[in-house]
Amino acid sequence: MRILSDLKKQALSFGVFAVLITCVIITFNTRAAEKPENNTSINVSETESKPGNWASFRNGNLQQGIAKSSLPDKLELLWQHTSSDGIASTAAIVGDRVYMAGLNGYVECLELKTGKPVWKYRSIDDPNPDQFAPGFKASPLVTDKGVYLGDEDGIFHAIDRLTGKKLWQFKTDAEIISSANITNGKILFGGYDNFLYCLNESDGSLAWKFETDGYVNCSPAIVDNFTFVTGCDEQLRVIDIKTGQQHSQMPLATYLIASPALMGESLYVGTYASEIIAVNWKTQKVEWRYNDPIKELPYHSSAAITDEYVVAGGRDKQIHCVERKTGKPVWKYGTRGRVDSSPVIVGNRVFIGSSDGNLYELNLQNGKMLWKKNLGSDVTASPAIGSGHLIIGTESRNGALYCFGKK
What is the DSSP letter of 293? Predict the structure, then answer.
């Protein structure tokens, strides 16, 4: 139920459910387009490999939060599309279409240039608009074949990308917040029933599932043939994607909520222990830890990374940038609300939302604000950038999806 889910969310802010928080999944697979170091090449869908697209939560299996499309120097509001209960997830941009998932239980396909509806899919078959429909907090994964995501009642949906018709569904035993990723026809996501799932894209059949000691909340990154799961037991468990069996484990000494970003052998993620950490996932050693000496609050925001920098938002109402190789601080930018939105980097620009209702554009090198736009409601969703457009939603009863670009 949405009410129960919202109560859990509020409790997390006060640390009541800290020991129940999220198992983080980190599933890793190489993509030639992202040029990882010392990783095995694996096929990706044509949809994800095209440079103008933003086809998944963090735009690729390494989850680096880097846009492969440029943006105009000056952003203008092109259109907005209302959603009755608001939007907490990141949209997908594929070609001339936008795919959004709302807390009202609808997945919608819109024209990128105009915002006009193309199709609409509901999480339940009942046409009665007063009938409760489980909402979507997970972000859609879009492939050549379909649109894939889970809902608040634990149903994972596969939707035809062109028509909006149901392809198949898979039932889990609890809410799904984890956004999916895909490798070689295998879809990976986690559930609040403590399982990491691997499904066959073709028909939704279960390839395997791996049980953890707590919620699996984060979105899987993919590299080589491994999935990495961390949870309430403070262990990093390495799972073989082909078999679903545990390969190895290491102590991590903290819970994680945010989804990881990968570059080479290093994994970057903000933790519930008020740190951003870098972990070498091959040697199983922590490379560095960063924490703000003044404010100590958790990170729900997933990091964006470049060769030089790691950027993440914090519940301390700040956006943090540190050196990727050392973890030394570079800059901080303060907002008036917690920053659960995950940053997106475009060249020398960082885009990120805040619960103060603003969408911010910052200079990557020095953190200076270049532009901001007040959207009137909490911005917990993250930006999607593709085909010269920026798309982002707001979370409230009068929430909306906003599209920025050049008129």
Answer: S
Number of neighbours of residue 406 by Cβ within 10 angstroms = 12
In one-letter notation, the amino acid at residue 19 is V
Name 138's Cβ contacts closer than 8 Å, sequence gap at least 6.
89, 101, 149, 150, 151, 176, 177, 178, 179, 180, 189
pLDDT in tens, 236-274: 677 789 999 888 777 777 788 899 999 999 999 999 899
How are beta strands 92-94 and 76-82 bridged, if at all? Answer: unpaired
Total-model pTM = 0.88
Q: Cα 253 to chain center, whole Å? A: 23
> What is the H or E stretch that residue 186 is in?
strand 186-190
Element containing residue 121 per DSSP (H, E): strand 117-122
φ and ψ at residue 63, rounded to 5 degrees:
55, 45
CA 387 to chain centre: 19
Residue in this structure with the two tokens 């907490």, named with its chain if needed: 88
Span 148-175, pLDDT tens digits = 999 999 999 999 999 999 999 999 999 9
CA-nearest of 74, 125, 79 to 98 is: 79
The rounded distance, in Å, linking the Cα atoms of 267 and 282 is: 10
